[in-house]
Amino acid sequence: MTYDAVVFDNDGVLTHPTPIDVLREATVDGFAAVGVDDPDPDHVDRMTLHVTPEDLQAASDAYGVDPEALWRQRDMAFSERQVADMRNGRKPLYEDYDAVRGLDVPRGIVSTNQHRTIEEILDFHGIRGDFNAYYGREMEPASLRRKKPNAHYLDRALADLEADPGRTLFVGDSNSDLEAAANAGTDAAFLWRDHREDYDLSATPDHELDTLHDLHDIA
Predict the structure, then answer these.
(1) In terms of domain of life, where is this protein from (predicted)?
(2) Which of 60, 87, 114 is the last residue of a domain?
């Protein structure tokens, strides 16, 4: 089928992912901002990727800090480190990005990254005008329950695009993207970037892509 709208994840789909060492440094910065200068490495790991509300609460309890303050500082540090990394040339658009501009349908972005970071990425690369809707997370603990695989932000993008979920394609590079698409009622395309070479899929996507150019065969 052809689609009336296409929504993209960002990191690993449109732009190269930020290196994990940069993200861990940002987490350490976030702890330091609330007075925790030597956090346990396990807490750093759990507060860097795939963070749950329980991870945040456990880290906050361990150091006697306010979870909302810790999360805001962690997210702010994440955003600042990623933007600095991008300005140093380490978060470029993928070479096949022009395929996005070639799609003659409304386009959106739904990311688990901070909304502030997504706006910075769009402006730095001069691509804000390529998208009719874009969503990242708010810098607050409640966003941990709204992020993918929850369909919250994807539902908001679909509403902005005035798109029928059944005629929309969500393009991602993770199982949480596939699950978010299922939860929102859209089709899903999994993009096999180099960093996903040995990735195990938890579900069968409607489409599998080697490059964004493959979208022109289906969208």
Answers:
(1) Archaea
(2) 87
Query: In the prediction, which pLDDT does 219 show?
Result: 87
* Domain limits for position 67: 20-87
| Tokens of residue 39, six digits | 């956090």
Closest CA to 112 of 12, 212, 24, 218: 12
**Distant-in-sequence, close-in-space partners of 160: CB < 8 Å, separation ≥ 6:** 108, 132, 133
Residue 9, SS3 per DSSP = coil
Same domain, 117 and 32: no
Half-sphere exposure of 96 (CA within 13 A, CB side): 15
What is the chain's length? 219
| pTM, entire model | 0.96
Residue 1 — very low, low, confident or very high, per pLDDT cuts 50/70/90?
low
Residue 34 sits in the same domain as residue 50: yes
Q: Clarify whether residues 67 and 101 are in a common domain.
A: no
Tell me which of 55, 87, 119 is where a domain ends: 87
CATH number of the domain encompassing residue 189: 3.40.50.1000
Q: Output b/e per residue, 35-66; b: 16+ Cβ within 10 A.
A: ebeebeeebbebbbeebeeebbeebbeeeebe
d(CA 219, CA 179) in angstroms, rounded, equals 20
